## 1
Amino acid sequence: MSLLERAEAQYRSLRLTATANHLASLLAQAEANELSYLNFAQLLAEHELKERTHRRVTRHLRQAQFPSEKHLEAFDYRHQTTISKRQVHALLDFGFIDNRDNLVFIGPPGVGKTHLAIGIGQKAVQAGYKVLFRTALDLVEDLELAEMKGELKKRLNQLSKYDVLIIDELGYLPMTRQARYNLFQLINSLYEYRSVILTTNKDFTSWGEFFHDDNVAVPIIDRIIHHSQIFMLGGESYRLKQKSST
């Protein structure tokens, strides 16, 4: 075993995998640039940290279960004039996550609510936060299954480990009594503890329609809007616009 191979094996035993995998090229870079010992040590550390960050972000993006990639850079602010680039960029210091605040995007189908929610979620992951994306329907079914197994509390604890829970398309379908109760349990467990990004096609005055129970709708709304930024989106559906232009 050569000295290089021995060093690579030692780095792997220390779980410095990125350094071990690229040690030869890092040595060549150090020699070509005549780096000092201290600068070379810093080069190794920076390389390892960069690779670990990349692996962590990749893992958390996978765990977030975004249905698709929706980049904020691709959002058409010229079409969606009810929210500005400045307003969205102001959210990217992620103070709303650190303060356990919520974001609520309200508007008709196709105006970019989900695009904004996913785009902000992806940026949050890249900034080091843990995010989970769920449609309201999937989330309700998830909670209902946990409740049937007698594991609702366990599932709520699992969901509360994420810094941000994105709930997409709330209000498109009515909910059963048990589903309303389970959702209240979730929102209550996250209240002032974690952040929620919510998209819905109904303003809060209409929530009683799909909850079929104002006694449940009111406390859920209260907990969501108490610490929240609310964005009302309008305009023509992107999807209809694209279809009509073809």
## 2
Amino acid sequence: MDKNWDFYKGKKILITGNTGFKGSWMSSLLLEAGADVTGYSLEAPTEPSMFELCGLKHEMRTVYGDIRDLDLLNRTICEVQPEFIIHMAAQPIVRESYVRPVYTYEVNVMGTVNIMECIRKNDCVRSFVNVTTDKVYENHEWEWGYRENERLNGYDPYSNSKSCSELVTACYQKSFLDGTDRNLAISTVRAGNVIGGGDFAADRIVPDCMRAAVTGKKIEVRNPNSIRPYQHVLEPVTVYLMILKKQWEDKKYAGNYNVGPDESDCLTTGQLADIFCRGWKKHTGKDLVWDSVQKGGPHEANYLKLDCSKLKHTFGWKSCWDVEMAVDKTVEWYACYHQKENLVECTRKQIEDFLKVFEQNGK
């Protein structure tokens, strides 16, 4: 790993939701950097899971607990004394939020209340990032990207609960933390749709592609014309860590940020499925096709993009992998899984490849 990531060596970091897809990539990267990582999470949400397949449960300490359990969360932070917290614990699926709206709000809103309450009570925390979503914005189906100062008002229970999470974070900061002598910086980061190996969740296009591929079935694409800002999971993960570090060094960097791909990488779901099929053929030699399947269901946005000018202007950031490379790396990981190859080495190699480009971009 590049020497610039030595900053995290030995640093005490708490990740909520570390057993999930994005949390597993975050944990893998921080462990490679030599950080002292503790997770707070429920058991891995899928079977199989990247957390289990890559042996992360044996490489880091995880406190298995519910983000709604304020007492256990506070005891964990009191014991660990982390300088850095990354809040990723969530109910993250739009369609699931229609089935379990109360649970979704409990986890995504009260979970944020609990983590902010713990930060308020523990002076050890100096840098905090709350991970939300591009879906926090009131979506007008505009052709241009949403900026950080747009109105927050997600449509569905998941999106709306994440809008509320943003408001809770801002309220706690203004009510309890601003104007004090606390050396603490807080940011929220809104990421576009992420893809990558290790995602086994239901109702997501890439895991659906993977499941169809390994079973020899056609991919069923629910909304082939919906446009989304697809990016590899390492794009936002490295941004979270970049902001966590920068605001620790200088609080002027704290704020709200979008992170998403360039305009050219905002594709329809059908186009993404096409790229996945080509990648599967490349890595396995097997053909794969998809069909449009209209099954109805609750409202989901058709058009959603982010304007990432603030992130680019503030940090000189630019994305590392275009969507073709992001899908290729994703398919490569799933092909290793399907062919029972070493997933730890595959994950480590992809992190190394990504960070080479990240450092070349001047971060």
## 3
Amino acid sequence: MDFNLDETQQDLRTLTSDLLAKEATPERLEAHEKSGRPYDERLWQALCQAELMSVCVPEDAGGAGLGSVELAVVLRELGARAAPAPALATLVSTLALARYGTPAQRRRRADAASSERERLSADSVGTVALREPGRAPAAPPLTAAEQDGDGWVLTGRKVGVPYGSEAAYVLVTADEGVFLVTGGWTAHPEFAANGEPLATVVLDRTPAERLAGPEAVSGLRQIFTAAVAAQASGVLAGALKLTTEYIKNRKQFGRALAEFQAVTVQIADVYIATRALDVAVWSGAWLLANDLPAEEDLAVAAFHVSEAYKALYTCQHLHGGLGLDVTYPLHRYFAHAKHLTHLLGGADAQFDLIGALV
């Protein structure tokens, strides 16, 4: 396994990083947090117009035809800025459509998204609905799919759906497979640690198109896990960079904090957590991209997302009282790490899954 990025992936990383340097400045992030809007629409439009949200769309549908590693590259850069955009859910949905949808379904969805971008509309947001109330993240879905004439209808309830109220379409896991829903669901807002929109999605004989059978349910969950872990990897890297700069410049007793042994040991622990998550992310993404068994590696990555959240406590501690200031950038990373941990169900759920797999 080669953990180095190839030329295309490096260019993609540079494009994403350069765009975010212009569109996700500290001033823009602060203004967004005060606005109360679900996401920064200017940032989202810039991401779409740069075609970063179509990197996983097949070439025959107008996209770049790339895969899970490239998805991870983009999301890691977004995480490093804690950028407020529905990129994670949208990229997961486009990669799943590329894998499981028919050519006609892919082209129809890509044509709709292209038209929406031309109108600078927010309706190009996509999402996925995986988890159900009281169920482990990896449990088989109870949402019922029933044939209705030439189509299907879905009945059930999904929780923790990213941008469930804002999305133009949602991919839903059900007992009969993975389905595409383009309208007719009811969304009830949920609270998220970082303020991003979440929703409980209620399906009541909601019309749907079937993308694939039950064998695709695990595949969609794995793509989602890889995406969350990649973004968490960026969040932790951003927090590590911020904390490293702080301890280099903050002086106490006439010495930089970085010169104290206790401080260097703690920042080293954060670095180790960052590298452990990175290795698991790239391993899982590479296996997915090459159609190899990835569930064990991704379960480990999901566990390290929870460990990354714990590492943020160390970053907070090293900042002293400043680490508790909600107007300081570290709070943004802390909130994002907590949110991403919740999306995957927490460390205990990942321990259970790892135990079942091994």
